[in-house]
Structures are given as structure tokens and as C-alpha cells.
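The following record pairs a protein chain with its ligand, protoporphyrin IX containing FE.
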Amino acid sequence: MSSFSGQKLDKIPAHVPPELVYEYDNARDPRLLEDPHARMRSLIKEAPPIFFTPFNGGSWVVTRKKAIVDITMNPEVYSNSFIGAAASGEHSGENKEPQQGFMMLPIGVDPPRHTMYRAPLNQPLAAKSVAGLETAIRTMTNELIDQVLGAGRCDFLSDIAEPLPVTLFMKLAGMPTNRLAEFRHLATQATSSTVDAAARAEVFKRIAGILAESIKARQEKREDDLISRLLDVNLDGRHPTFHEMLGYSITLFLGGLETVVNALSFGVRHLARDQELQAKLRADPSLLPGAIEELLRLYGIASTVRRVMRDDVLHGVQFKQGDMVSLLLPAANYDDEAFPNPEQFILGRKEQHQTFNTGPHRCVGLHLARLEMKVFYEEWLKRVPPFRLDPQAPPKFMGGFNLAITSLPLVWG
Ligand code: HEM
């Protein structure tokens, strides 16, 4: 999901002590655009653990694991209830009014109602259930590899990382595969950080239109897919409304595409720069699940945000009702109080990374995300010879709520 759309504040709010002000623009910070995760590491070293940035409408930014855990475990004070996909496709972080655009379920609802909305997703996205998609993921991965293998090069983003999760989403949601090309194009635009906000808003409306058509088709006739299952779930003695169904579909769409695209891409970039690790994983694929966790730690993707519902002091910082609090999950993975030698890739670390967050909203798609990555790496490492970054074309990055790569040219052979 993307950055706040607000302006830089002229004046720092009175309750913010000057020593806690640190200028950091999560969309345009030049060091972020040079190397997003290097910037996360520098924030741990240079900025206060909880700081206030005047950019993007003004918000607190939390970079340490313990403070993020404390905030996510206290939804009564630190609420999600303003989160929605605006027609612009942006979080309306600085708005004080409830969101006008699309409702997002279950992410835009606080406990106890959240529990009711989350329950229908737990079972279909549990590890056991998503295991049924493994063959399909493997087939899709191999089809994509077939298209680039002989060329000895590819742009990993457009050739592999973008198409894979979109195709999978369509399968999961039961969308007609004859719309694959159209939907893939829209999904790539909606999740691409290079498309401007107005164009994205348009794309977003069209996606919502297609999702709405799928829901209507399943209302007429159930199939073996997630939309059909969700239509029949019990929400406190009734079935979800059409609006609620759209809320689920949009969250699954936004939650499951850009995140996986970038997690795969940052992981592959790491391997392209570490031939030794690449060889080790190629020789012993049983190391992959551990390696994937460590890559997920080193390359956190999504950050998230909470709104303060009543004045509170946390880790010595005074928060006021209405303040926005960004939880910089990719930075928390470099917190040296939580992770010894945080900059090193260490297979078999015990500490749990923060990439999927903690608390009631912890990613419900994490089993599917891990499965996609595992199957992808198994096939890619088996079939593609040792690969490296194209020396002529370095990767390009993007900031925002999701740390992103926009281009990743690779060569091999
Ligand atoms: C590597 C890939 C992924 C990352 C890094 C990621 C990250 C996250 C994070 C950080 C949250 C918590 C947000 C918050 O606390 O406000 C979240 C929630 C969520 N994610 Fe993921 N996600 C990934 C993949 C997926 C996939 C594949 C799906 C779809 C199947 C998905 C669906 C969701 C949903 C529906 C929520 C909301 C859960 C709730 O509110 O209870 N995610 N994700």
C-alpha cells in the first residue's frame, strides 16, 4: 500500500519535543531511493527509536521491534479503523474523517469486530489449505522460466516477479483466466510505484469493477474458489454483503501482490550478489525455508500505520489522540536489540522477524507467501544457471509504504 498523500507540515505540533523531530520522507527520501534497506539500517543508527517526521502530513515513525509489538498488541489505543483504499489507491493517513473510498476487510477493522471479519480467511489461507495450490504455483513458475531461460537474461520484475502472484491471485479468486492479460496489466499498474496517483486511481476503479463482476458471477453460481467460499461464511448469523465481499477482495488483491513481487525480487537480488549462498541453496534445497525467513528479515517490504485513539505515553513518548503512527517494519528487522548482528545473513536465526507484523492483523497470507517463495526458489535454482546482476543495468528502487524494486536485470550463462 502506498505513502500518505499529505503535504509537509509548516509547524511541528506542540506536544512533539524538538529532539524527537527527524526529517524522513518515506516516498522521496533520496537515500531510500538509492537502496531502501540501507536507508532502514541508517534510520536505526541515526534517528531516535520513535521520531516525528513533518513529511506526508506529519506522523510518528517507530523503528524498533519492541515498541512496534507493544503498539500492535494494543489496538484499543492504536487503531486501524481509518485504513481503507481511497479511490486514489492511497491510505488516507492524514484524514480525520472515516475513509470515503473502498472498505478494506479485515484490515480496516479493530477487535472485537476484526475477529469476526478475520475468521473466514484463517482456514482457507492456513498452511494445509494453501498446500493445495503448490502444483499450480510450480506450473506457473516453470512456464515463466521457459520464457526467459534461453535468452540468458531477464528483467526479473516484469518477466517473473510481477506475473507470478497475479496469476495465482486470479486462480485463488476464481477469476477467468481469459482475462489474464488485461488483469495482469491493471494489477501491475495498480501495484507499480512508477504510475502516478491519478492514473493509479483510474486503474484501481477498473480493478474494483472486475472484482465486483467476479463476485456477482459467484453470487449466481458457486465454484471451487475463495470468493465462493467467502460468500457463504457466517458473519454473526448472516452472510457478507456485496460491499463486504468487495472489501475482502480488494485487501487480498493489495495485500498479496505488491508484497510478494518485492519480497521475491529483493531475495533474488541478494542471491544474485552472493554466489556462495546461491550455490549452497542450489546444492541443498532443504535449506530454502530457513533462507527464505532470513531473506524476509533482511528485506522487509510493507510498513503499516495506526491512529492514536486517546492520549498515551509509550516508550517515553507522548502520543496525542489523532496522531498518526507509522510502523516501519523493515527497519525493525535491523533493530540490534532484537537481532544480534542484524546486517548479517544468518541461516537458522531464532528471533522472529517483523516482516508480517505482530498482533491481531499479522499477515493472514503468510503461508501462501512462503509457499510461493519456496516453490519459486526450488524451480528457479534448479533450472537457471548461476545468475548475477546485469553489470550494465543496476536495479532501480522505490519508496512508499512498500519498499519496492522497479527493475532488476539479471544475466546468466
Ligand atoms: C511477502 C509477502 C507479504 C508481506 C510482506 C505481507 C505483509 C503484511 C503485513 C505487514 C500485514 C499487517 C498489516 C498491519 O498490521 O496493518 C499484512 C496483513 C495482511 N495480509 Fe499480508 N503480506 C504478504 C503476503 C500476503 C498474501 C500473499 C496475502 C493474500 C493471500 C496477504 C493478505 C493479507 C491480509 C488479508 C492482511 C490483513 C490481515 C488482517 O487485517 O487481519 N498478504 N500483510
